[in-house]
Amino acid sequence: MKITIHRGTNQIGGCITEIQSSKGNKILIDLGHNLPNGDDNADDVFDKQENLNAILKGVSDIFYSHYHGDHIGFEAKIPATIKQHMGELAIKMVSMLKHHMIFAKDLKDDAEASLNALCKFEPYKAFERVQYGDIFVTPLPVSHSAVDAYMFLIECDGCMVLHSGDFRDHGYYATQKLDAIKNYLAQNVDVLITEGTMLGRGDKRVMSEQELQNEAVRKLKGRYNFILCSSMDIDRIVSFSKAREIIDKRIRIIADSYQVAQIKTVKKELPYPYSELFAYPYGRDMKHEFPRMKRYGFMMFVRDSPSFEKRIDEVIAETGILPSEINFVYSQFEGYIKEDHKAFRPRLCNFVHRYNWNLIKLHTSGHASKEALRRLVEITNPQMAIIPIHKEKDSNFAELQLDSNLQDKIVTQSKCFEKQVGNQKVRVEIEIK
Ligand SMILES: [Zn+2]
Q1: Quick one: pLDDT at residue 396?
Q2: How far apart are CA 354 and CA 226, in angstroms?
Q3: For the chain, which residues make up each domain, given as ranges?
Q4: How remote is the CA of residue 26 from the centroid of ligand 1, in Å?
Q5: Ligand 1 centroid to 331 CA: how many Å?
Q6: Is 372 buried (19+), middle (13-18) or exposed (0-12) by CB count in 10 A?
Q7: C-alpha of residue 90 to centroid of ligand 1, in Å
Q8: Is the pLDDT score of 41 beyond 80?
Q9: Within a 13 Å sphere around the CA of 317, how many CA atoms are in the beta-carbon half?
Q10: What is the pLDDT of residues 301-328, one digit of tens each?
Q11: Which end of the chain is more exposed for a tag (fewer CB within 10 A), N or C?
């Protein structure tokens, strides 16, 4: 078999992993678009159809670990002969996003093309082992800042490969999900391909989503709050919603109609605390809503767009609440609003500082802490190779200080292995581009 890491060993996002069996069957795990630089659009060599076609040659199926834009993004340009797979709820979430994007003139055409592709996606199911040619794929649910996210166990030519996708051990149900994966893996894997986003980001302990919820209870008490977090990060929306419930259930929790629709979908499909989610839609009956917001306080989810700027201005004008009485809760990666960071987004930064309000930064990563990465290595005990992907160029897996026998298995350059399977020697080629 051959494992090709097309992209990801020296950049976060834009991950593409290919698995090819000795008989020539070929699948991809994630086909992610590059992340944008600041406010600019993301450049990607695979935006050119001929480059994309070249990488897709011979591929029968693409498995997306989750819906973040750096793991998906080319879905509309994939020839119909190639099947695309994602979790059922994840497909719904992206479809809702694309339906919402249709309202923006400059995004309409791409959103429609994407919706056309998404309606042909084939959903996979947790722990359901399915055969594609001579390759078996089993999706294993994980916690991430996207709902319905998965790792994949791939069995090919008598070898077991675990691809971690993006995961963490500090979200809701995160440890239960990792325990379930541990129980499912009856034996050691041969190759572990794992994300390493948090490597190189220091040793500070990572706050859990539950701890963030507790912080929100403490910091958002008795105030008026605009909250900026990813609309697709359902764990985070749960954290603020639960905080509101603890502080005072009368506090008005408000989102736009798109986010309300998402919340309703998730609520139907997932257990507690997701099943408790709800929000009032902005726009309906605001004449009566403004006095309630003023009286009971509010938590209103916002995004950095002109329509939300208008709404924020409207809330302030109609309620007469002073900016000094308002919290603006920034709940995303801090690099986006740090001028000296390469991910700095000037437009977003202006939005965050629109008023002289009380800025609260409250965020925790969607990615695996060093402890979580160590745990995954322990659970899988890779016999052949550990391939770190979804990581910065300079970050190093050696930071994990694994036992030397595991440390020696870290692969950062192309390499070949052999495994005895029954009375046959199987060649495993790892190519890192
Ligand atoms: Zn992700």
Answers
A1: 80
A2: 12
A3: 2-201+366-432, 209-361
A4: 24
A5: 16
A6: buried
A7: 12
A8: no
A9: 8
A10: 999 999 999 999 999 999 999 999 999 9
A11: C
The rounded Å distance from CA 168 to ligand 1 centre is 10
Spatial CA neighbour of 262 closest among 146, 150, 105, 175: 146
Residue identified by tokens 């605001």 is 286
The alpha carbon of 287 and the centre of ligand 1 are apart by a number of angstroms equal to 39
Say what the pLDDT of residue 368 is: 87
Whether residue 319 contacts residue 223, with contact meaning beta carbons closer than 8 Å, is answered with no
pLDDT > 90? residue 221: no
Q: Is the separation of the CB atoms in 184 and 127 below 8 Å? A: yes
For ligand 1, the distance from its centroid to the CA atom of residue 146, given in whole angstroms, is: 6
Among residues 77, 12, 63, the alpha carbon closest in space to that of 42 is found at 12
**63, 154 contact by CB (below 8 A):** no
- CATH class label, 2-201+366-432: alpha beta
Using the mean position of ligand 1's atoms as its centre, give its distance from the Cα of residue 401 in Å: 25
In CATH, the number for domain 209-361 is 3.40.50.10710
Can you read off the two tokens belonging to residue 205?
Answer: 């302990």
Gap from CA of 145 to ligand 1 centroid (Å): 7
What distance in Å separates the CA atoms of residue 37 and residue 30, rounded to the nearest whole number? 21
Q: How far is the CA of 39 from the centre of ligand 1 (A)?
A: 19
Q: How confident is the model at residue 392, as a pLDDT?
A: 76
What is the DSSP code string of 109-142?
A: HHHHHHHHHHTT-EEE-TT--EEETTEEEEEEEE
The continuous run of DSSP H or E covering 179 comes out as: helix 174-184
Distance CA 230, CA 67 (A): 13
pLDDT, tens digit, for every residue of 126-135? 999 999 999 9
Task: Report how far ligand 1's centroid is from the alpha carbon of 248 (Å).
Answer: 32
Whole-angstrom Cα distance, residue 276 to residue 263? Answer: 10
Q: How far is the CA of 66 from the centre of ligand 1 (A)?
A: 7
What are the tens digits of pLDDT across the range 179-209? 999 999 988 899 999 988 877 777 778 899 9
Looking up tokens 């994990």 gives 400
